[in-house]
Write a structure and sequence with these properties.
About 30% of the residues lie in helices and about 25% in strands. It is of the alpha/beta class. It has a four-stranded mixed β-sheet. A hairpin with a 7-residue loop joins β8 and β9. It starts with a strand and ends with a strand.
């Protein structure tokens, strides 16, 4: 779907959709639990559907009725399973160790850019890669280390050593898998450790299901033979990552309030509020509400190590600043997302009239040349598509977005919500 976005101002209040990151974790914990769990989740997406499909393939029985997801847990170990992760890297990385812990002969498939993303990385640093760590603990991967990924054997407990700056999702997968094994385990992360907030989210979810993990610096201690205890009913919290698009929209050209956001959330992307304040936006926090109103923005320095998913929308926000330069550092992992996001950000900003540059680990964005309009692709990347819509709010002219349906990966109703706040767009090719 191609759309034409007209410069406009967003005003009003919108409720945050349920967090995709939180939903993934709760679904997996529920599927490993002792009894049925009812999950309240007010949003759907292609990634969440992928996780539900894969958990069903592992033996769970998960059904959805409106905003309610009912999870009947996996009842048996062993057997064969084929798991289609679609384009969800989270689903794949989380469930590789889980399937191995269940002793499944599993085949993982995927689509889009997923097969080229770093699933089994760093083959030249054998002891630090997830696959190598799993191989040392009883799991056989069928060569040639690419899709489809086939595993067999049963995961064993013990010490796991992983590089801390590749993907926190590898760590999350092991944290889900290791408690159900016989024998105690440790996960040691080699610094620097990035996206630690996502690991903290996983530990928090595990605690809600009765699983104990002890953290000491960069090492996690997991007792074996633990049981997942269902809370029977649980709510998925609001998503700071997707709320960020509307909060940044308010900062660029609007006055937007997002409700349903927990101030005590462990989601790293709640830092968007602090960053927008640093850039000069008016920010008001009141319980589960955050209001952001446009003011004269200026450039700042942004460390992306714990907030990589915010960088696309913060980049278009920076391009709408009135003065200064924004420098983004520690963003190398953006090259390994649904698109090479560093390259995609630079290309799309340039196509819209902004001047910017890539560095070895990030971006430099000047605001001297304003966004004037133009035509940009979505790069089949949900965050790039939504960022283009936000960029249009402060543009000097119309922006044509090709492939706007990419938002379905995480936020299918994005453009409906965008329009409800005053965003202006027209479908020009469906």
């Amino acid at each position: 779907m191609d759309i034409k976005l007209t410069p406009s101002r967003l005003e009003g209040t919108i409720r945050a959709i349920s967090s995709k990151s939180d939903a993934h974790r709760i679904l997996i914990a529920a599927a490993l639990s002792d009894k049925t769990t009812v999950i309240h989740c007010n949003s759907d997406s292609e990634d969440i559907r992928a996780t539900i499909s894969c958990l069903n393939s592992l033996g769970a029985k998960i059904t959805r009725n409106g905003d309610t997801i009912t999870v009947v847990p996996v009842s048996e170990k062993g057997g064969k399973a084929e798991l289609n992760c679609n384009e969800s890297g989270s689903t794949l990385r989380f469930l590789l160790p889980v399937a191995a812990a269940l002793g499944k002969e599993a085949v993982f498939t995927g689509s889009g850019r997923l097969p080229s993303r770093p699933i089994i990385p760093l083959r030249n640093e054998m002891e630090k890669a997830l696959a190598d760590a799993m191989e040392k603990k009883g799991i056989k991967f069928t060569p040639p280390w690419q899709f489809p990924i086939e595993i067999s054997g049963e995961l064993q407990s013990g010490e796991y050593i992983l590089k801390g700056n590749v993907s926190s999702q590898f760590v999350t997968g092991l944290l889900f898998a290791l408690p159900v094994l016989d024998g105690d385990s440790t996960i040691k992360l080699l610094p620097p450790v990035e996206s630690r907030s996502y690991i903290n989210m996983t530990v928090n979810t595990l605690s809600k299901f009765g699983i104990s993990v002890v953290e000491n610096g960069d090492t996690y201690y997991i007792k074996g033979s633990q049981r997942y205890i269902s809370p029977e009913k649980i709510f998925v919290e609001g998503d700071w990552s997707n709320a960020a698009f509307f909060l940044c929209a308010g900062a660029i050209n609007g006055d937007v309030t997002v409700t349903g956001l927990r101030e005590d959330s462990l989601q790293g992307d709640k830092k968007v509020v602090d960053i927008l304040e640093q850039m000069g936006a008016y920010v008001e926090k009141n319980g589960n509400k955050v209001r952001v109103k446009s003011e004269a923005l200026h450039g700042i320095q942004i460390d992306a190590s714990d907030i990589p998913d915010l960088i696309p929308v913060l980049s278009v926000t920076a391009a709408n600043a009135k003065k200064g330069v924004t420098i983004v550092t520690n963003a190398e992992r953006l090259r390994l997302k649904e698109s090479d996001r560093l390259q995609a950000i630079c290309e799309s900003l340039t196509l819209m009239g902004n001047v910017n540059a890539q560095t070895d680990d990030g971006l430099v964005i000047w605001c001297d040349e304003k966004i004037t309009g133009g035509e940009v692709p979505s790069y089949s990347d949900h965050r790039m598509a939504m960022s283009a819509a936000v960029a249009a709010l402060g543009s000097g002219g119309e922006i044509t977005l090709r492939g706007a349906e990419a938002v379905n990966k995480s936020y299918p109703n994005f453009f409906e919500d965008f329009s409800s706040l005053g965003g202006s767009y027209n479908v020009i090719n469906s």
